[in-house]
Design a protein that fits this description.
Order of helices and strands: HHHHHHHHH
Structural class: mainly alpha
Number of helices: 9
Radius of gyration: 20 Å
Distance between the termini: 48 Å
Number of domains: 1
Helix content: over 70%
Largest sheet: none
Strand content: under 5%
Number of strands: 0
């Protein structure tokens, strides 16, 4: 069963310290790299990552951290991280568009399957979209390395950004595995009616899962925007 996200998720620990946030980031990183990762765990990962960004935002809004961020040396690092965060926002936008297109393709696949027609065209379209997203994230992930920095807030932002890119890339990989060409291209010709109904049920579940991912990415995008606003406000003090 797909995990349904709540759009108004609140931080699990509003006063999280740096060690606690680092522990959450490490745990999330392990989940992403696990070969057992699924769409459900990815949806949960998006929610947790949004919570982490909220914790980081609270840390950067602390008076002592705001003073630190405004220092000359730290300001350079903060401005660099602000620039890199734009890349992540662009990736979130790209993922939202991909998810919307994938959902539409799944809906078309359902209609074709019900009519008993050849599904090759829709399956190829789905695979093409998922592969395109996968290549995009691999390309971007090589360009967003961070410099070492003494600011704990900037360091946590950099770690969260790198994990965000990894999570979005992992999402595209998992989505690609949901439909296999040999299985689906001839499904309407080779399966009995009961089997076709089973495949329809799986496609509906995939559609719901993609909707969950859409909600997760949207929540993450909003938290990223909030982080940028808070960081810009800190620099303007």
């Amino acid at each position: 069963m797909a995990y349904h996200l709540r759009s108004g998720s609140a931080p699990s620990s509003p006063r999280s310290s740096k060690p606690q946030v680092e522990q959450q980031l490490q745990s999330l990183s392990a989940t992403i790299s696990s070969p057992l990762a699924t769409i459900d765990t990815t949806c949960e990962g998006l929610r947790k990552l949004a919570d982490i960004y909220s914790c980081i935002e609270e840390m950067m809004c602390a008076p002592s951290n705001q003073v630190s961020l405004c220092r000359t040396l730290q300001r350079v690092a903060v401005e660099a991280e602000l620039g890199r965060s734009l890349v992540v926002l662009d990736l979130c936008n790209a993922m939202q568009e991909t998810l919307m297109e994938l959902k539409m393709t799944v809906q078309e696949l359902l209609l074709v399957l019900k009519r008993g027609e050849d599904t090759t065209c829709q399956v190829k379209a789905y695979i093409r979209l998922a592969k395109k997203a996968q290549k995009q994230f691999k390309k971007i992930s090589k360009k967003t390395t961070s410099d070492k920095n003494d600011s704990r807030v900037v360091m946590l932002m950099a770690e969260a950004r790198e994990i965000t890119i990894s999570l979005l890339e992992s999402t595209s990989c998992i989505l690609l595995k949901q439909i296999e060409m040999p299985k689906w291209s001839l499904v309407s010709k080779t399966l009995q009616k009961s089997k076709v109904l089973c495949e329809e049920e799986q496609l509906r579940a995939l559609e719901c899962s993609i909707e969950d991912l859409e909600s997760g990415v949207e929540l993450l995008y909003r938290r990223l925007i909030q982080n940028r606003v808070s960081l810009l406000n800190a620099l303007s003090l």
